[in-house]
């Protein structure tokens, strides 16, 4: 018999499932991972979205306009206090838009996003309460130190 999973493990599993649903384009699964009612979401470059229907509408739009997406999560940190959990991570994203020709994959683009996901414990397990993703912009530290040409760029 396997030992009971800790809250931290269950939250990390819920966080991973959120990204897997996006990768698979499984809107139904993704919808079931969000709390009902007062939720919020900030996609990179977007304004704050509030409310269950507005947040889910944004994911439907992203899924409808993204031919391919894959997340490689790094720097995952999980903190649980009572019935609330905070997950921070880096989303190393590989995505592709619509192909120029039928039957082909569109151009692939890499992007780094730092994300904060807040979960609440429910009778049905851990549900997403809030997601905030911010793009990692070019690092200008090397340029200031005279070590590089244009600094580092965000990407895989």
Molecular structure report:
This is Nuclear transport factor 2 family protein. It holds the Pfam family SnoaL_3. Residues 11-136 form the SnoaL-like domain. Helix content is 27%, strand content 37%. It has a domain at 7-66 and 80-88 and 116-134: Nuclear Transport Factor 2, Chain: A, CATH 3.10.450. The protein has four helices and six strands, in the order ααββαββββα. The protein has helices spanning 7-24, 27-32, 52-64, 141-145; strands spanning 40-42, 49-50, 68-81, 84-96, 108-122, 125-135. It has a six-stranded mixed sheet with strand order 2-1-6-5-4-3. A hairpin with a 6-residue loop joins strand 1 and strand 2. With 156 residues, the protein is an alpha+beta fold.
Fold blueprint:
Layout: H1 7-24, H2 27-32, E1 40-42, E2 49-50, H3 52-64, E3 68-81, E4 84-96, E5 108-122, E6 125-135, H4 141-145
Parallel strand pairs: 1-6
Antiparallel strand pairs: 1-2, 3-4, 4-5, 5-6
């Amino acid at each position: 018999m396997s030992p009971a999973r800790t809250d931290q493990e269950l939250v990390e599993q819920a966080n991973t499932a959120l990204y897997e649903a996006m990768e698979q384009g499984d809107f139904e699964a993704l919808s079931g991972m969000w709390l009902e009612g007062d939720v919020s979401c900030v996609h990179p470059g977007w304004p704050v979205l509030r409310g269950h229907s507005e947040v889910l509408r944004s994911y439907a739009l992203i899924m409808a306009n993204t031919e391919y997406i894959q997340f490689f999560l790094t720097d995952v940190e999980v903190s649980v206090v009572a019935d609330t959990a905070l997950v921070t991570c880096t989303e190393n994203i590989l995505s592709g838009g619509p192909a120029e020709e039928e039957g082909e994959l569109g151009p692939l683009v890499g992007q780094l996003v730092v994300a904060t996901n807040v979960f609440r414990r429910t009778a049905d397990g851990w549900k997403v309460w809030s997601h905030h993703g911010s793009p990692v912009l070019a690092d200008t530290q090397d340029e200031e130190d005279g070590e590089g040409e244009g600094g580092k760029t965000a990407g895989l």
